Amino acid sequence: MTRTLLARASALATTIVLIAACGTSGGSTAPSAAAPSAPAASTGASAPASSGGGSGGTIKIGGGFALTGGESALDLPAANGAKLAVKEINAAGGINGSQIDFIVHDSQYKMDVTAQTAKQFVEQDKVPLFVGYTDTDSVLAAGPTFQAAKIPFITVGATSPKIPTQVGDMMFLACFGDNVQAAVGAEFAYQKFGHNAYFLWDKGVEYTTLLGKYFKTRFTELGGTIALEESYDDAATDFSSQITKIKALSPAPDFLYVAAMPNNVGTIVKQFRDAGITAPIVGGDGYDTPDLVKIAGATTSKVFFTTHALMDATNGTDGIKKFIAAYKAEYGNDPENAFAALGYDTIYLMADAVKRAGGTDSAAVKTALEATKDFKGITGAITFAPGSHVPQKGGTVIDIETGSLTLGREVVPQTVPAP
């Protein structure tokens, strides 16, 4: 996910289910979720700091999340999932005998605050490791600070495959790239709905800009036709103009591909359906928020999106079922979306790399992350191919019918557009 391009530029000046995977390298499996005690902003013992090379002390890990603001629908569950993983690891003895001190700061989904908190993590908290954020713009606002300090940084859910190149060699993704989920969405919709699409994207956000670009590339490669392409401002709330143009199309499009953010996808779906537009609506993981159905209504149907895991206590994997139970025991409710599971798996991925590195030395942790192969977590398996800091993953499509999320299809794209 991301914020506006303008906001990102300002911040830097001041300084779709797809299987997300994390667990243990070499084919081992992350521990099943348990139900630890309530998390705090800083989760860990107050023992002296440690490099993680032996028993005793603590290992600091910074956690940057928009706990408030426009991205909080994704970041807050991600932070909760990460805190749950920290609790479990500490209860099991920590990393090489050292407890994790998980330090979390709220970026408020403001790029200037994101940049400021990045400096706080480095200069005041002195964290040697960092995880966080579900949107690309926040990563780009914070990333240069961690890169300059040579601090390994794993983003929980920012999906731009360009991030490692833009930020540097300390940057890793724990999630699929937008080119992967866009290819899944394009191939799925082309095969299931038809070859004629209406295409709408949020032009003020990097995530939706890239997602839309990759969708269009893959869909037209397949032989699909874009009947009409339009964009809108991220702050838009009235989509009557787009509705008028869609209804005037002849023949009517087989489906609508809408690259949208969590803050406006519910409004778009509601207005389209209220206007009598019944064609399937397809999009990316920006749809993975309870706000979609809450705003669009309980009768919401024929909406499909790519995301990181099917959070279903009945139809999910055994790992997901256990995670859901533990999350509910910890927070009093089911995980809000797949980003909770991504946060959980990201902590286990970082912890495994530190364990294999024998401590928190940045070069050693970076090397350990790059060597990760078949790291099994509750949302799948992760491998970093040589020279790539974007994991190799397959994916899943979620189908919303009468307000309920069900498994649409698991897809490994045949072809993925270049980043």
Task: Describe the fold and architecture.
- The protein is of the alpha/beta class and 419 residues long.
- The protein has 2 domains: 5-176 and 315-388, 3-Layer(aba) Sandwich (Rossmann fold); 179-307 and 396-411, Rossmann fold (3-Layer(aba) Sandwich), CATH 3.40.50.
- The chain has helices at 5-13, 72-91, 111-125, 136-148, 163-167, 178-192, 206-221, 240-248, 262-274, 291-296, 318-331, 338-357, 362-370, and strands spanning 42-43, 58-65, 99-106, 130-132, 153-155, 171-173, 196-202, 225-232, 255-259, 281-283, 303-307, 375-377, 380-382, 395-401, 404-411.
- The chain has a 7-stranded mixed β-sheet, with helices on one face.
- Helix 5 links the parallel strand 5 and strand 6.
